[in-house]
């Protein structure tokens, strides 16, 4: 047993807060680290907690519940120990009064300890939180503070005496973030953020604090009223303030996008200063890249407004159309420069920063879609083509993922196809995450022209693929084969290959979809081809169970189409299926029982073969198999041959849903915003053509059925016309009996039926 206890952060050791008590606290930490078992550590923690509790409760207790006899040294030492014990995961349910006393202190060393403990030990819903709100508000809003509250950091940055206290209070509010605290103090936080007297450090912390509060209560800030204040903050020359403000702005704009659209020119101006003019303080240069984190936040904000270019270029708002054109021109220059000047660097850190900015710029181009400049899309595609062939796996991963997004744009398909060979190489990469992104890109770039090659490559690679990615590959191959199949026979062959190579990863929705497509397309010889192909596929004894299920369903529905061919008779179909009976599970056997019933109905020679199976299965432990066997066996004895024929006729076409089960499964696994899901939900030209053919066939069938029904009605009306004369001239009593014949269930029978129905429902 090795116990690794965390070290106390160095930020805790400030201005002598631990210099005098280091011995006691450090000895306690050393004891915990040297513990040889969990039991020994628990014993040491319990002993220390008992000692601290005794120190807090012995002596004179003040009105606020704290021990006034404790010195500042002792109170800070014991509270630090409670904080450390809490960090280790132990429950600390006392000492809050001492924490609150430290927070109310005017000394920075005590206030620092108090706010750290307050942030960790208290939660927003704690009852005593109301007693500390006024103290936090005082620290936030006090115009000045005693010199003892000053910290070295605030003095060096030129902050006032209240800088340190405000910073501690803001950090604590953000960490606790309870509803009561939010409602009580959010106005003060906003006031500090927009106040001109606040220092840069305080404005940074207040922006991040307000972001935390807004995430907890989205309607806390009114966008239209607050947008001008954000605009004022975006004109600050301090890059730290700008970075924090952009974090806040992104959080606000995600929730209320339209209310912050007026800030786009400010964002573009800052981006232009960083990218075009390299205007950046030296401390914010990261490997000669001006504040890459701020650039990323600016680009992310612009991605929230994909139609900004289209909407603003055609509008004249109060004579500001020239300004609009200016910032749009500046924005395109910025994005163009990011695309052209970003390259792979020898320094990993610089390369990572530059490429983070680059990929956000490409995401912005993707968001613009067709409204963006064509040259930018072409430049992005060319650049990404270079990145997906580099050796660095991180850059290759991001390149593949971003190219998949770019490939969704109209007119980008041909540019993506040029890199098909490179993407196929990435499909064999050692890193599984890179293989997944390569698979996604192949899925997105697939169309009618290259579908057969891509699907064949994926099927060939499936043999060597890891088990971790096989299920995903099978699902996407099945969707592509259905989506772009010019001949549905190729689709059936592809699914059978998937079953033979990786049958364990072919889920039920995939083979269900095969059955639906074969059933819904009676045109041509698809149904006969499927029956003949499955007869060959199911012939070997070592055949995957999924293939047996598909073959069983197809034989029962369309086996008669090939029964006249040599070696494909009904008896042969039964023999091929029944050889797998003992190796199948209950679900497959239930399908086989239904197929046997249909084969026995179609072929006289199959009835002696099927009857013993039904007899044995009447006593099956599986209720489904038992019920099916008993009903099918009794059906021929209980009903006329015509009724049996009607009951066992082939299934009608399945209802075509807007989304197939495979598309829904893909959306469930990858989310609605995934490039592959967007691709899968768009119907291909082949799918539209098949849907149109099915609609025409269905309409013709309906017209034929309506014509037949009308002819039958004419015959019935003619028969009734012939009988009208004799009835009218006959006995009026007979006529009355004919016209008032009872329809439905007689009223006197209904109570007995209700009782019988109740008995059926409740008795065993």
TrEMBL record:
A single cellular component GO annotation: endomembrane system
Region described as Disordered: 666-738
Domain Clathrin/coatomer adaptor adaptin-like N-terminal: 41-635
Acidic residues bias (residue ranges): 703-725
Keyword Glycosyltransferase attributed: no
Any one biological process term the GO annotation gives: vesicle-mediated transport
PANTHER family: ADAPTIN, ALPHA/GAMMA/EPSILON (PTHR22780)
Keyword Transport included in the entry's annotation: yes
Broad class of the protein's primary localization: membrane
SUPFAM superfamilies in the cross-refs: ARM repeat
UniProt protein name: Clathrin/coatomer adaptor adaptin-like N-terminal domain-containing protein
InterPro entries from the UniProt entry: Adaptor_Complx_Large_Subunit, ARM-like, ARM-type_fold, Clathrin/coatomer_adapt-like_N
Superkingdom classification of source: Eukaryota
Subcellular location field: Endomembrane system
Pfam families: Adaptin_N
Keywords of the record: Membrane, Protein transport, Transport
């Amino acid at each position: 047993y090795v116990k690794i206890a965390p070290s106390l952060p160095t930020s805790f050791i400030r201005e002598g807060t631990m210099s005098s008590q280091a011995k006691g606290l450090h000895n306690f930490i050393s004891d915990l680290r040297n513990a040889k078992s969990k039991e020994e550590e628990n014993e040491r923690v319990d002993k220390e907690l008992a000692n601290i509790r005794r120190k807090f409760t012995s002596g004179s207790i003040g009105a606020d519940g704290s021990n006034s006899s404790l010195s500042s040294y002792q109170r800070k030492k014991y509270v630090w120990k409670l904080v450390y014990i809490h960090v280790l995961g132990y429950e600390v349910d006392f000492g809050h009064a001492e924490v609150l006393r430290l927070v109310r202190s005017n000394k920075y060393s005590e206030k620092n300890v108090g706010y750290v403990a307050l942030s960790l030990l208290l939660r927003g819903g704690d009852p005593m939180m109301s007693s500390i709100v006024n103290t936090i508000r005082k620290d936030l809003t006090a115009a000045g503070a005693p010199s003892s509250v000053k910290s070295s950091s605030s003095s060096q940055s030129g902050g006032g005496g209240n800088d340190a206290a405000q910073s501690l209070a803001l950090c604590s509010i953000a960490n606790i973030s309870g509803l009561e605290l939010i409602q009580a103090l959010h106005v003060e936080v906003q006031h500090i953020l927009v106040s001109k007297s606040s220092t840069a450090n305080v404005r940074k912390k207040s922006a991040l604090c307000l972001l935390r509060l807004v995430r907890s209560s989205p309607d806390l800030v009114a966008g239209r009223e607050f947008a001008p204040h954000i605009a004022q903050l975006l004109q600050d020359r301090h890059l730290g303030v700008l970075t924090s403000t952009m974090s806040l702005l992104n959080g606000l704009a995600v929730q209320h996008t339209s209310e912050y659209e007026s800030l786009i020119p400010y964002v573009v101006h800052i981006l232009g200063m960083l990218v075009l003019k390299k205007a950046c303080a030296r401390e914010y240069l990261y490997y000669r890249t001006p504040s890459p984190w701020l650039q990323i936040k600016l680009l992310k904000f612009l991605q929230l407004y994909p139609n900004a270019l289209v909407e603003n270029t055609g509008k004249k708002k109060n004579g500001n159309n020239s300004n609009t054109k200016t910032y749009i021109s500046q924005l395109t220059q910025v994005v163009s420069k990011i695309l052209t000047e970003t390259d792979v660097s020898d320094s990993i850190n610089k390369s990572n920063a530059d490429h983070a900015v680059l990929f956000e710029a490409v995401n912005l181009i993707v968001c613009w879609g067709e409204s963006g400049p064509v040259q930018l899309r072409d430049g992005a595609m060319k650049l990404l083509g270079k990145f997906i062939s580099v050796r660095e796996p991180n850059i290759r991963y991001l390149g593949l993922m971003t190219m998949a997004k770019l490939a969704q744009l109209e007119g980008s398909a041909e540019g993506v196809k040029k890199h098909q060979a490179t993407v196929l190489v990435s499909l064999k990469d050692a890193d599984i995450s890179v293989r997944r992104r390569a698979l996604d890109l192949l899925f997105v770039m697939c169309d009618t022209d290259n579908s057969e090659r891509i699907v064949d490559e994926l099927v060939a690679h499936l043999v060597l693929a890891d088990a971790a990615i096989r299920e995903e590959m099978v699902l996407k191959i099945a969707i592509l084969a259905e989506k772009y199949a010019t001949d549905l026979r190729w689709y059936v062959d592809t699914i059978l290959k998937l079953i033979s190579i990786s049958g364990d990863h072919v889920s039920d929705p995939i083979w269900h979809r095969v059955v639906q497509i074969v059933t819904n397309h009676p045109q041509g010889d698809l149904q006969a081809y499927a029956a003949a192909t499955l007869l060959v596929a199911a012939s070997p004894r070592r055949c995957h169970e999924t293939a047996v299920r598909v073959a069983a369903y197809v034989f029962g529905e369309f086996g008669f189409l090939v029964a006249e061919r040599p070696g494909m008779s009904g008896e042969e179909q039964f023999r091929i299926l029944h050889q797998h009976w003992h190796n199948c599970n209950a679900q497959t056997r239930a399908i086989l029982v239904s197929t046997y019933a249909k084969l026995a109905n179609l072929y006289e020679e199959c009835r002696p073969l099927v009857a013993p199976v039904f007899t044995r299965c009447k006593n099956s432990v599986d209720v489904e198999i038992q019920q099916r066997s008993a009903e099918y066996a009794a059906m021929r004895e209980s009903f006329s041959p015509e009724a049996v024929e009607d009951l066992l006729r082939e299934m009608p076409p399945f209802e075509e849903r807007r989304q197939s089960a495979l598309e829904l499964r893909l959306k469930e696994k990858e989310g609605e915003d995934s490039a592959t899901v967007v691709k899968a939900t768009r119907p291909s030209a082949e799918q539209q053509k098949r849907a149109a053919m099915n609609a025409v066939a269905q309409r013709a069938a309906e017209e034929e059925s309506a014509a037949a029904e009308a002819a039958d009605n004419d015959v019935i009306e003619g028969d009734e016309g012939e009988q009208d004369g004799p009835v009218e001239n006959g006995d009026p009593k007979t006529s009355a009996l004919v016209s008032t014949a009872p329809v439905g269930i007689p009223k006197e029978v209904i109570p007995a039926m209700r009782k019988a129905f109740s008995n059926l429902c409740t008795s065993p």
